[in-house]
Amino acid sequence: MSEEMQRSDNHRPDESVGGEISVHLWSRRPVCGPRTTAIDRFTELAATGIVDDFDIQTWPEEIPVSQRTEHGEVLATVDRYEQWATERGLSLRPPFETRTSSLLVGGSTEVLRLPMIAVAVYANDDLVGVYPCTDGETTWSVTDCIDSLTTEPAGLPHQSES
Length: 162
What we know:
The protein has helices at residues 34-47, 72-87, 142-149, 157-160; strands at 21-28, 53-59, 62-64, 97-102, 108-113, 117-123, 126-131, 133-134, 139-140. A four-stranded mixed sheet has the order 2-1-6-7, sandwiched between helices. The protein has a three-stranded antiparallel sheet with strand order 3-5-4, with no helix packed on it. Strands 8-9 form a two-stranded antiparallel sheet. With 162 residues, it is α+β, with helices and mostly antiparallel strands. α1 (34-47) links the parallel β1 (21-28) and β2 (53-59). The protein is 26% helix and 29% strand.
């Protein structure tokens, strides 16, 4: 599957879910269990028109941070997600974690461990949500995101606590 994603550097302080809603779901392989449940629910939201665009992309369990060429798009995407979270006083860690991994031939390397599933929500091409995320006290999951999109009026879980 393609790792290409829409990019937006516009961050509005009055983020709300409205206009054209796009959802980018990232999953580790194999895509099974709870991940398929989330995919099915987002597919339903797309079929009913709550979500205008929905795509699924896969990523590995972890990526060597030094391999910017091989995994550059995923690393750049995670950087954008982390910037979005930081600008809002939120964090994506865990489940996005950087750690030191021992190599089989000696030495070690820094790796970025990626979550089993993550979702980015865009409204009119602006990034308005990344899940899972936390404010240090509350953690919002991909399921929380799906549930919030199905409520009236549609919103995002990290906004309801503000």
